[in-house]
TrEMBL record:
InterPro entries: LpoB. Pfam families: LpoB. GO terms for biological process: peptidoglycan biosynthetic process. GO terms for molecular function: enzyme regulator activity. This is Penicillin-binding protein activator LpoB. One of its GO terms (cellular component) is periplasmic side of cell outer membrane.
Length: 199
């Protein structure tokens, strides 16, 4: 009797699990326009990254700066000044990837600075690493430029309509002189209307 009850529980669990995992799942084009909500989405991220990188690389002083060498920069995390939870690190990564792949800049990754320091200390102090092959401390190249920015928004709601205005600002700053070498803004406006019926 106990065996039958146990078998019933196992079968029931399997059926429930099967129901939980079934559904219509399909792959879509990651580059297609996403308009499910007025919130900041993947299309906005792609638009911002492409516009900003293209504008920066075509700016005459930047063209001249990168003509014969690849300056070293680091990207500071984009500050989220909106009321939404937005993964600004993803924006930062996309912009950095596009700039690296342009072949015009080299980057130092400040998000990995602590991990690199720990690894160098391990190689020097643990006694586990052949010192002939260990990394020499103090040999890293310093960044010449810092790329940073802000993402802000203004939200208005009235008469069942909602409007959100996003402004993304990015600037390239010379660390030695403090001079802003390049800056630009990208604006996005999105609106939505609540359905007449439903929640």
């Amino acid at each position: 009797m106990k065996l039958k009850a146990f078998a019933g529980v196992v079968i029931g669990t399997a059926l429930l699990g099967g129901c939980a995992t079934t559904g219509n799942v399909s792959y879509g084009d990651a580059q297609s326009v996403e308009t499910l909500t007025k919130d900041f989405g993947s299309t906005d991220l792609q638009m911002i990254a492409n516009k900003m990188v293209d504008d920066m690389l075509s700016f005459p002083p930047i063209v001249q700066m990168t003509q014969n060498r690849r300056p070293v920069m680091f990207v500071d995390r984009i500050k989220n000044k909106t009321q939404e939870h937005i993964d600004t690190e993803s924006i930062t990564d996309t912009i950095q990837s596009k700039l690296i792949n342009s072949g015009k800049f080299r980057f130092v990754d400040m998000t990995a600075a602590n991990a690199m320091a720990e690894q160098i200390a391990y190689q020097k102090q643990s006694g586990m690493v052949n010192q002939a092959t260990s990394v020499r401390a103090g040999g890293q190249i310093g960044a010449e430029y810092m790329l940073n920015g802000n993402l802000s928004s203004i939200v208005k709601n009235a008469g069942g309509k909602s409007d959100v205005y996003y402004k993304f600002t990015l600037k390239l700053q010379n660390l030695q002189t403090g001079i802003v070498e390049w800056t630009n803004e990208k604006e996005i406006r999105k609106s939505s209307k609540r359905p007449a019926f439903g929640l």
